[in-house]
């Protein structure tokens, strides 16, 4: 026996005690607040949680890279310790779901929509997989005392965090409460919401932690066990195929049940492993030599070495080469699965399903006979191993049991965007938690862009107090905005609605509001005199006039009536320079002439928390200026909300229109960079991705946005997006010729395929849909009935 394994077995060996009470099935003696458990004779353990990565939808080359990085992680396991990799399937708890995701009722007249939206969310939750998959690494080591164990786990933890980071995953250590919750939720399925462990309180009362997390009862049978009212069974992977696909673990854990799959690994030091393999090879060579000598004695000098002996020699040599030249390590591994069900019949059916999946991969799983308790303690991440059915593997052979599958997006109090195509779980994202919460929604016409934007607007309107501002050039959002009690402001040269381009509050800008406004007016004037450049000194004149027209408004602490563009033009005419008069002439059409809609005092209600600027009828001459003025008005709103501690969401449909004009593009770029620190979040919606990517400004904004919804894409757009966002060919298939509402969603570093099928028999669907042929929701009729 190899020395390391021998020592490990000696350390793990304990005197067997028949459990006298249900608490005794938990093989942990002491729990420390930092998450270290003591079990057996000085065996300390620590558990780390790691996040999934997008292995299943990665390209072949990316998969190879991930596989090699995972092999490096396995190689880094300490040979003096046992490492357990655990995949935990736990059912989504309905009460937790309702507390975290469902929208609470309010007295604002919108509860009808809240009930409809909540009903949709509940249908999706119960119809989806409803299984959350957590992944853990538990390291167990024998140490003399807790201080030595803490030092050891501190070093090991840093190594694990670094290796998982290279894989694109995130590894975090669990404290005592988090570890106990894993065990509590497994033993007490359905009671997850009631977990509220207070270690100090338990110590004060002299209670054992085991009293709190153990099941109500435990029955041990020959091939299954019973915890509380549930049945469970532990299976062992007995026979391994010579070739195993890397999807095997994902398929074994794909069953829609509570289960845990654990892989216990004992790495062997390379020098011991080489010595062991050399001894085995020497034994094989000796057997072959003896066989040949025997054949020679019978005058059979041409006899061929038997196939099984030749195969043993070949495999031993390959194993030795792996250890000495290919950076492989020898590992001893045990694979166990524990699964539970509500009835014995269901348990047997689930067992057969798991056994069938294993057989499909030419592996044999078996039920542990009269060892169910030992198997349970091995499979659950207590940090102990009671099953010694070891299999010798190299690093690569073990890495085939790939624990990674696909990233899940599930943020508490987030917004529902659809279901994960691979895992079928709900995708709940909260872009406010990202470093940069700005987003883009991209897709060809009819792919569901505006529906996605409206779904987000609806959720925000119903579940938060945030302000929402929409820039709508196609008049698509008006029905939804009116139904949700928002204001639709139609802006055009002939509209009675006006927005004062000179509006400003005291919080405008970062330094001095007047200085910031001066820069805005320079952009506005340069846009008005499009095709020309500023004459010498005109920028200085604009700056001087801005200071003059705002003097009294500034002295009144930015209260009262602000100046208008007409006042600004009058101030230009008062200046002695001919350049000022030339500029005033250029401004005449937009101040005294027929396009003076932005030169009058604001006469619309901009105080509503949901505002839609309808710019469909904004003529070509006014469009560029109108965009600038509306964006400036939005900045005013954002800065005012910042002082009130209120969040602002801005949705800009057909955002490519803003990039057609240099000044609105630059203004938007500045807005995109600044709004995050003001508690605001921008969303750009467009079908013209190719046009968007022609602009360096837009390209930069897109690559810096951490939240991107990609729906069905045109061929040229797919190629550009793949380059920009490093999308694999397999991932691209999810945005190629797909139905409306299907695509890829980028949340931070996660890139996940999704599908959003909103129920059609709802008022919200008819409000949000602009699909030709579908009857739109008559908002005016509905509002009249409400009155």
Relevant terms:
787 residues, alpha+beta, Rossmann fold, 3 domains, 13-stranded antiparallel sheet, 18% strand
What does this structure look like?
- The protein is of the alpha+beta class.
- It has 3 domains: 3-8 and 24-102 and 119-270 and 330-399, no CATH class; 434-499 and 602-786, P-loop containing nucleotide triphosphate hydrolases (Rossmann fold), CATH 3.40.50.300; 509-601, no CATH class.
- The protein is built from 30 helices and 24 strands.
- Strands 1, 2, 3, 4, 5, 6, 7, 8, 9, 10, 11, 12 and 13 form a 13-stranded antiparallel beta sheet that branches. The protein has an 11-stranded mixed beta sheet with strand order 15-14-24-23-22-16-21-20-17-19-18.
- β14 (415-420) and β15 (426-429) form a beta hairpin.
- α2 (60-75) packs antiparallel against α5 (146-167).
- The longest helix is centred in the middle third of the chain and has 28 residues, at 270-297.
- The model has no long low-confidence stretch (mean pLDDT 86).
């Amino acid at each position: 026996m190899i020395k390391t394994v021998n020592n490990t077995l000696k350390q793990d060996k304990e005197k067997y005690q028949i459990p006298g009470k249900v608490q005794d099935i938990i093989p942990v003696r002491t729990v420390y607040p930092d998450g270290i458990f003591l079990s057996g004779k000085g065996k300390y353990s620590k558990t780390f949680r790691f996040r999934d990565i997008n292995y299943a939808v990665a390209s072949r080359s990316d998969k190879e890279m991930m596989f090699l990085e995972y092999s490096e992680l396995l190689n880094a396991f300490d040979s003096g310790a046992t490492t357990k990799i655990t995949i935990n399937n736990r059912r989504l708890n309905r009460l937790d779901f309702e507390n975290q995701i469902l929208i609470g009722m309010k007295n604002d007249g919108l509860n009808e929509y809240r009930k409809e939206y909540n009903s949709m969310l509940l249908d999706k939750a119960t119809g989806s997989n409803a299984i959350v998959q957590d992944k853990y690494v538990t390291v167990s080591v024998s140490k003399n005392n807790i201080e030595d164990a803490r030092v050891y786990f501190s070093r090991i933890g840093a190594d694990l965090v670094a290796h998982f980071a290279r894989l694109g995953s995130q590894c975090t250590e669990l404290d005592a409460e988090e570890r106990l919750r894993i065990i509590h939720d497994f033993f007490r399925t359905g009671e997850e919401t009631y977990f509220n462990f207070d270690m100090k309180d338990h110590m004060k009362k002299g209670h054992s932690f085991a009293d709190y997390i153990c099941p109500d009862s435990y029955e041990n049978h020959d091939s299954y066990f019973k915890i509380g009212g549930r049945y469970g069974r532990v299976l062992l992977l007995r026979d391994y195929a010579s070739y195993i696909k890397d999807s095997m673990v994902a398929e074994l854990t794909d069953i829609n049940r509570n289960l845990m799959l654990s892989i216990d690994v004992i790495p062997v030091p390379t020098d011991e492993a080489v010595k062991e393999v050399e001894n085995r090879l020497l034994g094989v060579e000796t057997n072959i030599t003896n066989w040949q000598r025997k054949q020679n004695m019978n005058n059979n000098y041409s006899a061929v070495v038997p196939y099984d002996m030749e195969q043993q020699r070949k495999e031993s040599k390959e194993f030795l080469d792996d250890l000495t030249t290919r950076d492989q390590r020898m590992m001893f591994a045990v694979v166990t699965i524990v699964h539970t069900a509500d009835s014995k019949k269901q348990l047997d059916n689930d067992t057969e399903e798991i056994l069938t999946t294993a057989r499909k991969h030419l592996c044999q799983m078996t039920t542990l006979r009269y060892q169910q308790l030992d198997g349970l303690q091995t499979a659950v991440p207590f940090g102990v191993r009671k099953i010694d059915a070891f299999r010798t593997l190299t690093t690569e052979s073990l890495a085939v049991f790939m624990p990674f599958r696909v990233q899940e997006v599930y943020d508490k109090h987030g917004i529902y965007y659809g279901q994960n195509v691979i895992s079928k779980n709900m995708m709940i994202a909260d872009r406010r938690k990202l470093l940069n919460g700005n987003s883009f929604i991209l897709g060809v016409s009819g792919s569901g862009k505006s529906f996605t934007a409206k779904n987000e607007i609806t959720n925000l309107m119903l579940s938060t107090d945030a302000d929402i501002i929409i820039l709508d050039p196609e008049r698509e959002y008006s029905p939804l905005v009116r139904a949700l009690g928002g204001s639709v402001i139609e802006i055009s040269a002939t509209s009675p609605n006006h927005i004062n381009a000179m509006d400003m509050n005291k919080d405008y800008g970062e330094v001095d509001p007047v200085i910031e406004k001066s820069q805005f007016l320079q952009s506005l004037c340069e846009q008005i005199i499009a095709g020309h450049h500023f004459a010498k000194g005109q920028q200085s004149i604009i700056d001087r006039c801005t200071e003059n027209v705002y003097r009294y408004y500034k002295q009144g602490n930015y209260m009262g009536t602000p100046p208008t563009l007409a006042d600004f033009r009058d101030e230009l005419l008062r200046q002695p320079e001919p350049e000022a008069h030339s500029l005033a002439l250029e401004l005449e059409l937009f101040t005294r002439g027929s396009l003076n809609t932005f030169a009058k005092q604001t006469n619309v209600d901009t105080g509503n928390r949901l505002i839609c600027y309808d710019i469909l009828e904004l003529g070509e001459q006014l469009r560029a200026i109108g965009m600038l003025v509306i964006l400036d008005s939005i900045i005013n709103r954002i800065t005012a909300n910042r002082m009130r501690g209120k969040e602002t969401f801005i949705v800009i449909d057909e955002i490519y229109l803003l990039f057609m004009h240099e000044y609105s593009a630059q203004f938007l770029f500045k807005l995109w960079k600044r709004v995050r620190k003001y508690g605001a979040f921008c969303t750009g919606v467009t079908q013209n991705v190719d046009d968007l990517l022609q602009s360096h400004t837009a390209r930069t904004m897109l690559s810096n946005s951490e939240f991107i919804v990609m729906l069905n894409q045109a061929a040229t757009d797919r190629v550009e997006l793949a380059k920009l966002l490093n999308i694999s060919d397999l991932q691209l298939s999810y945005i190629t010729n797909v139905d409306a509402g299907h695509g890829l969603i980028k949340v931070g570093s996660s890139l996940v395929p999704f599908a959003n099928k909103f129920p059609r028999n709802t008022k919200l669907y008819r409000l949000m849909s602009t699909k030709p042929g579908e009857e739109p929701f008559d908002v005016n009729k509905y509002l009249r009935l409400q009155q």
